[in-house]
Design a protein that fits this description.
Blueprint (H helix, E strand, L loop, with lengths): L2 H5 L13 E7 L18 H9 L1 E3 L9 H10 L15 H6 L13 H7 L3 E7 L20 E5 L11 H14 L4 E6 L11 H6 L5 H26 L6 E7 L14 E4 L3 E4 L20 H4 L3 E4 L8 E3 L9 H9 L15 H4 L8 E8 L17 E6 L1 E5 L6 E5 L15 H15 L19
Parallel strand pairs: 1-5, 1-6, 2-10, 3-4, 3-5
Antiparallel strand pairs: 2-9, 6-9, 7-8, 11-12, 12-13, 13-14
Length: 458
């Protein structure tokens, strides 16, 4: 079956041999330039660099939020996280309630992995979860979301040690290959989220660096090694050629709000490690960091390898791919059907992956919503944006009551250096109107079985 034809439809009946395996590696707070293949001055990532050398590096990929939980919600549902009232990270119950959040993503939501299961795939999740929280013991386990196997942390139940993600991933792939079944695996690695869990082996690799740089480089090197273990397993099992591997990040790099000393902190899911003052991630010149919807917070690495299908050693600086596009794209490749009544917010991007579509302007708009409220007379820095939209070549960012905004030609000006709101008032008006229309489609509050019994405790 031609892949051009496959890219034009969302449902196909494919044989097991035609269905590609899919390995989606999702890192946590990995900055765009935190790769040696993106020019980082001292971090070394030879295994991710291998993916770039053997695949295509897409420079215009954006996630659906500047923070973790909503970004991950968009991946598994193919819809904007605001549709589920998920605008921030899942924390403990009082914090979720205060912010108008549910306590977890409903397992009844549309799920990528469930759609792939019905198409004959074995599905698994290894690594960070954070579609609930380990501090909410009655939240659903990942197994209730359509995974045949899982090992996770930041979820209810036993917390898998973060560094065992690759080991369990490899075992699952071996089992799937032995059963001659196509597989879909989320490998959602911890790094480089805080706490930074250092190991002497990796710190020794960067022993000439200052302590904070040494810490940051060592945890990324550890992550890169584990990714390499999985890539080597694909080679050993002779399934590399029929496996789509994607590496990306849930949002941009974290940064401390002000300089401070390195201190140890404890996380209930992953244990003790170094705190935020060890965060050294960089964005390749993009504005902002984690928790913002400027490009530094949402434009993250996106490298795709599929030998003989996706071009090797190429850089794509033009195709605007979004995290909400992953579900429809994976379903198209797998011949998976959507549930009745389901409509993704994303679009099929098979042609872009295969280098057959290099359009610079997005025809279906994207929207972002962040949990901040800043009045127009208090605007400053990067954390004032509540709403953003990208339509065709335009990106508009606005505060909570749409009284302050900035407009960028994101195709010509990906670094968001020139605000065009005064030159293009008609574009501003059109995009503000589209945000208002989108707001009308969103729920006023979370509903359904998404609340912990802890909310009833006084």
């Amino acid at each position: 079956m031609s892949f051009l034809l496959l890219s034009l439809v969302s449902v196909q009946i494919l044989s097991a041999a035609e269905k590609p395996n899919i390995l989606f590696i999702f890192s946590d707070d990995w900055g765009w330039e935190d790769l040696s293949c993106h020019g980082h001055p001292y971090i070394k990532t030879p295994n991710i660099d291998r993916l770039a050398a053997e695949g295509t590096d897409f420079y215009r990929f954006t996630v659906a939020s500047g923070v973790c939980s909503p970004s991950r919600t968009a991946v598994v549902t193919g819809q904007f996280p605001a549709r589920f009232s998920i605008d921030g990270h899942f924390a403990w119950v009082p914090s979720n309630a205060k912010r108008g959040m549910p306590d977890w993503l409903s397992p009844k939501s549309p799920m990528l992995q469930r759609m792939l299961q019905k198409a004959g795939y074995r599905t698994a999740h290894f690594g960070k979860w954070h579609l609930a929280n380990n501090m909410i013991p009655d939240s659903p386990l990942p197994s209730e979301y359509g995974y045949d196997e899982y090992g996770a942390f930041n979820c209810a139940g036993e917390q898998m040690p973060y560094h065992e993600d690759s080991m369990h991933c490899i075992k699952f792939i071996e089992k799937s290959v032995a059963e001659d079944k196509p597989f879909f695996v989320n490998l959602w690695i911890h790094e480089p989220h805080t706490p930074f869990h250092t190991q002497p082996k990796y710190q020794w690799r960067f022993r000439d660096l200052p302590e904070d740089d040494n810490i940051y480089a060592s945890v990324l090197s550890h992550a890169d090694d584990r990714i390499g273990e999985v890539l080597d397993a694909l080679d050993r099992l002779k399934v590399t050629d029929n496996t789509l591997v994607i590496f990306s990040s849930d949002n941009g790099p974290a940064r401390a709000s002000k300089p401070g000393t390195l201190e140890l902190k404890y996380d209930t899911a992953t244990g003790a490690g170094w705190g935020l003052n060890g965060a050294k991630g960089i964005t390749g010149g993009r504005k902002g960091y984690k928790a913002t919807v400027f490009e530094g917070g949402i434009c993250v690495p996106f490298i795709a390898r599929w030998p003989k299908k996706i071009a090797s050693g190429k850089i794509n600086k033009v195709s605007p791919i979004s995290a909400v596009d992953l579900l429809p794209t994976f379903c198209a490749l797998a011949g998976a059907e959507y549930p009745a009544g389901y409509k993704p917010d994303g679009v099929v991007q098979v042609k872009a992956l295969l280098g057959q579509d290099r359009n610079t302007e997005r025809t279906k708009p994207l929207f972002w919503k962040m949990p901040v409220k800043v009045n127009s007379d208090k605007i400053g820095g990067f954390h004032w944006v509540t709403y953003a939209t990208m339509n065709k070549k335009w990106k508009l960012l606005a505060n909570h009551d749409l009284t302050h905004f900035e407009l960028y030609d994101i195709v010509a000006d990906p670094m968001e250096s020139t605000d065009l709101k005064k030159q293009k008032p008609e574009v501003v008006k059109e995009l503000i109107t589209s945000i208002k229309g989108w707001q009308q489609t969103l729920p006023k509050e979370p509903t359904g079985d998404v609340f912990s019994t802890l909310r009833n405790q006084k």
